Amino acid sequence: MISRIDMKPKKLCEHAGCTTLVNYNQTYCARHQPEPKQSDYDRYENRKKAGGKYFWFYKSKAWKNLSNQYRLKQPLCEACLQEGIIKAGNVRDHIIPIREDWSKRLDESNIQNLCHYHHNIKTRQERMKTK
């Protein structure tokens, strides 16, 4: 006698070219199961490990206070102002990255206010320089 468990409807595995039958509520056969995606928490934990003191610095009260004070003093993107554009700056950025000179991390003369566009350009240039 055939049990009811074996009578469930089946379909083909959704991996291209695979002809293995799987239960109707499954997507892939055991051979083609995708790797589990990394959760937001795991990515955060990896950043903490890789970033070390740099990661924790941006969570510190000293940085948050300095960043907020500078934003109040200079609310516009400094790179946009040089181009004659008036745009709010949303990222306080170290001119000399703290990975290069840790002693300038709380030096107000080493901070600039940038919009996301200019911050991404600067970050991309810094990464290209280090590679």
Which strand order spans the largest sheet, edge to edge or round the barrel? 1-2
Write down the overall geometry.
Answer: elongated
Count of strand segments: 4
Helix count equals 5
Helix- and strand-based class?
alpha+beta
Q: Element order, helices and strands?
A: EEHHHHEEH
How much is the average pLDDT? 88
Helix percent reads 25-40%
Largest sheet: 2 strands, antiparallel
The CA-CA distance between the termini, in Å, is 67 Å
The parts where pLDDT drops under 50 for at least 5 residues are: none
* Percentage of residues in strands: 5-15%
**Rounded Rg:** 26 Å
Describe this structure in words.
The chain is of the alpha+beta class and 131 residues long. The protein has five helices and four strands. The strands form two sheets. Strands 1-2 form a two-stranded antiparallel sheet. A hairpin with an 8-residue loop joins strand 1 (10-12) and strand 2 (21-23). The N and C termini lie far apart (67 Å). The mean pLDDT is 88.
In short:
The chain is 38% helix and 11% strand.
Write the SSE topology.
Layout: E1 10-12, E2 21-23, H1 40-51, H2 53-57, H3 61-73, H4 78-82, E3 91-94, E4 111-114, H5 116-130
Antiparallel strand pairs: 1-2, 3-4
List keywords for this structure.
single chain; 131 residues; alpha+beta; two-stranded antiparallel sheet; two-stranded antiparallel ribbon; 4 strands
